[in-house]
């Protein structure tokens, strides 16, 4: 009988059960991961527990030791009774309490030489000596796997609260990876948390703004290793998509300098929005009324004296609308031209200002 228990995408716990003549099934069982990914030069923890057959509980004494055997030859590579002596092929520590049926073990300075599967054996100074049939395969990597981001994509409206979770494998409990966000986006980064299934997580919170659109957010997992070996790192990232209404709408004028009557002048409306603005409408302001002139991103004037005046561009799409205004002057000395956004008017001195405007000729 083989029963699979889902724990995490990185670790699948399996229960290995044997039936012995005269003993009920499911009495002798070992629970351990089927697969563990380890980083070369670092330690690796093998979560392990077991159950015993009927009548053997009393045999589980302080004399018991745990042994890990490697490969099909079942070579003994770790014996808990030899911890600290230097006699084990792989140095480590059995951190579980065998009398509590816990056989979790940490093996140190693991290298690709030990790529294989491992089985657990329990030996006590009595009749209890048992080779559990379950096995764990340890796959040693020279570089750590990339951390994972959840959600994998961010596509939100401006103003939405966003929470990103970065998760990275932590096969070595004493040297868990450090998770670093770039950029941090300043709102908050919660402390690292280690979950029971050997995973480290970090949470980044921020409020989506139009300035975040197109931003690449990365999470880097930095792993320290044992025996003075250099650090290793891996990175994953996503690109943020933020939907927002028109912003920073302005009108540019070409040519930008003084114009003579009869010269052609093109007004162009510029607006920052996502999705991009496709609906532009042009108006001329006459007194308190706005006369519609046409549509499109650009509008051309012949610069007759009658064309002097205030022109308004309206940028509109499903998420909102914004307007910008420019004063165009033709052969009218001493008039100061400018632009305005919304309902406010900001004079723009000739040959200066944050936006490109037409300028009055100087007498």
Automatic annotation (TrEMBL):
GO terms for biological process: cell-cell adhesion. GO terms for cellular component: membrane. InterPro entries: Ig-like_dom, Ig-like_dom_sf, Ig-like_fold, Ig_sub, Ig_sub2, VCAM-1. It comes from the Eukaryota. This is Ig-like domain-containing protein. The keyword Acetylation does not apply. Keywords: Signal. Residues 147-241, 246-327 form the Ig-like domain. Pfam families: Ig_3. It comes from Hucho hucho. Residues 1-25 form the signal peptide.
